[in-house]
Amino acid sequence: xxxxxxxxxxxxxxxxxxxxxxxxxxxxxxxxxxxxxxxxxxxxxxxxxxxxxxxxxxxxxxxxxxxxxxxxxxxxxxxxxxxxxxxxxxxxxxxxxxxxxxxxxxxxxxxxxxxxxxxxxxxxxxxxxxxxxxxxxxxxxxxxxxxxxxxxxxxxxxxxxxxxxxxxxxxxxxxxxxxxxxxxxxxxxxxxxxxxxxxxxxxxxxxxxxxxxxxxxxxxxxxxxxxxxxx
Length: 231
Known about the structure:
The protein is mostly helical. The chain has helices at 3-40, 43-74, 78-110, 122-143, 146-154, 156-176, 181-213, and strands at residues 215-216, 228-229.
């Protein structure tokens, strides 16, 4: 590969990485604002999250187009090709994560005429963890840091435990009084959306490891070292 081609390839890969990081920042913001809107019963903020989801979608398509253009014009091989293919998958995962944040905002809009069933304690903690997972997973992608990716995947256990705790608590409210079912169900769906964001952060880690090593497999808290070669 000539120096000129290498320089052009590096430049285009850098643009894609920058757009991925910008998309990740948008996702983190969407998570933040969706939880604030829920806590404060802020219809305008919730609607802003819903409206801004279009910008995330547009950036996803931009990244995919950049990746396709790079493949068509630069004919990357080996690690470069893995990085480009991995970036397209990461963009899709981030777009889905934004959809989950939008889901929380939509739930907030649907339940504005009802007071919260209980103070929000575990839900903001879940949101904080999945935000941290997302940021760290993207750091692992940018720096090809396999150990960081594996450590992020371990945190999904924390998210799952909080989800189960919220589920049990809300189930108790439902059993105590059937009138609580509607509001409890809304909060359960909020927690479910956060749990799914955590799962998708693990998917980001899997792609980061694939890009760095060429190995592709499922990461989980029980045995996140068991990967299978992509070849």
